[in-house]
């Protein structure tokens, strides 16, 4: 069992989990099985990843009565997608994820983004010109509907993803059930020091998605820096007899940040959890902090007038216009 953080509810959340974004159908089942078999007890999912049914097939083979693992030992997260922000859509969306995953409850359910899209079954509802059809549903109203999921026992905790500090505070100001987590992009090129400090001050745990830089993101360009190839990180890794990936994950978990690296390769899945048998020195923690470039890799972009621009920057609830 990997080490845990204690959420504001008193429940424990493993510091390291398996991410499933971009894990293709036909691969994710084996990835989840490999993760559970080598000690992972935290699986991060989302409706928008379109692979929860296959994750559920893996969970059915390992988790529950008569299986290797009791349900209460495995922490499963899912997320409410942008097209399901209308309060009347929230419970059905949660129940759909539960059915796909074969579970009676989720340990954590997150609002995937503060931005609402037009309600419906399409993940990315678009106009004829290709632009996204937005909705003006406010995340405060969506949050109130998510609180009802907790009241009904469908989820054990609720939280946020991709929310800035101001938006997080806004949710807290209206919450009957406070958010326990804010899941955001976080790696040595985007260390999130201000947001991390703020979330800690209000009792919200931070989870790092794409903690290794998500080199396989669909919109990556060849001129962007490769985190895992950073020469300084390679030098640090050599000193500890670890991989650059292991050093990055250790840096984050040593800061109390939960990490959910994605992989479908069994050897890498196993390597990624082998970060609890060494510690980075304070000097190396500070050195890795100094790599910060405030570089966001995970902001979908589109080409307009010959330039790449953030696709959803025009949405009234787009989170990345604030400094943190």
Automatic annotation (TrEMBL):
GO terms for biological process: aldehyde catabolic process; glucose homeostasis; sprouting angiogenesis. This is alcohol dehydrogenase (NADP(+)). Coiled coil: none annotated. GO terms for cellular component: apical plasma membrane; cytosol. It catalyses: S-nitroso-CoA + NADPH + H(+) = sulfinamide-CoA + NADP(+); S-nitrosoglutathione + NADPH + H(+) = S-(hydroxysulfenamide)glutathione + NADP(+); a primary alcohol + NADP(+) = an aldehyde + NADPH + H(+). The active site is at 49 (proton donor). Residues 16-292 form the NADP-dependent oxidoreductase domain. It holds the Pfam family Aldo_ket_red. It is an enzyme of class 1 (oxidoreductase). Substrate binds at residue 112. The record marks 79 as: Lowers pKa of active site Tyr. It is found in: Apical cell membrane; Cytoplasm, Cytosol. GO terms for molecular function: alcohol dehydrogenase (NADP+) activity. Its EC number is 1.1.1.2. Catalyzes the NADPH-dependent reduction of a wide variety of carbonyl-containing compounds to their corresponding alcohols. Displays enzymatic activity towards endogenous metabolites such as aromatic and aliphatic aldehydes, ketones, monosaccharides and bile acids. Acts as an aldehyde-detoxification enzyme. Also acts as an inhibitor of protein S-nitrosylation by mediating degradation of S-nitroso-coenzyme A (S-nitroso-CoA), a cofactor required to S-nitrosylate proteins. Also acts as a S-nitroso-glutathione reductase by catalyzing the NADPH-dependent reduction of S-nitrosoglutathione. Keywords: Cell membrane, Cytoplasm, Membrane, NADP, Oxidoreductase. PANTHER family: ALDO/KETO REDUCTASE. Belongs to the aldo/keto reductase family. Gene3D superfamilies: NADP-dependent oxidoreductase domain (3.20.20.100). It comes from the Eukaryota.
């Amino acid at each position: 069992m990997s080490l845990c953080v204690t959420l504001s509810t008193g429940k424990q959340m493993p510091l390291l989990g398996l991410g499933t974004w971009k894990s293709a159908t036909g691969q994710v089942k084996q990835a989840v099985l490999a993760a559970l078999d080598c000690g992972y007890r935290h699986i991060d999912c989302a409706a928008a990843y379109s692979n929860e049914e296959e994750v559920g097939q893996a969970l059915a083979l390992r988790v529950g009565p008569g299986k290797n693992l009791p349900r209460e030992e495995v922490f499963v997260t899912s997320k409410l997608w942008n097209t399901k922000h209308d309060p009347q859509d929230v419970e059905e969306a949660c129940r759909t994820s539960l059915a796909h995953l074969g579970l009676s409850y989720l340990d954590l359910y997150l609002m995937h983004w503060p931005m609402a899209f037009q309600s419906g079954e399409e993940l990315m509802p678009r106009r004829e010109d290709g632009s996204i059809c937005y909705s003006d549903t406010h995340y405060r109203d969506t949050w109130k509907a998510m609180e009802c999921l907790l009241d009904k026992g469908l989820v054990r905790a609720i939280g946020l993803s991709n929310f800035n500090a101001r938006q997080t505070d806004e949710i807290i100001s209206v919450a009957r059930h406070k958010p326990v987590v804010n899941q955001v992009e976080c790696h040595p090129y985007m260390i999130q020091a201000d947001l991390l400090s703020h979330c800690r001050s209000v009792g919200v745990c931070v989870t790092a998605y794409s903690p290794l830089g998500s080199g396989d993101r669909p919109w990556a360009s060849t001129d962007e820096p490769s985190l895992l190839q950073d020469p300084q990180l390679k030098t640090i890794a050599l000193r500890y007899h670890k991989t650059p990936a292991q050093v990055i994950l250790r840096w984050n978990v040593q800061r109390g940040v939960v990490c959910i690296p994605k992989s479908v390769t069994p050897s890498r899945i196993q390597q990624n959890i082998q970060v609890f048998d060494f510690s980075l020195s304070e000097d190396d923690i500070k050195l890795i902090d100094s790599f910060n470039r405030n570089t966001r890799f995970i902001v979908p972009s589109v080409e307009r007038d010959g330039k790449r621009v953030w696709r959803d920057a025009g949405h009234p609830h787009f989170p990345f216009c604030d400094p943190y």
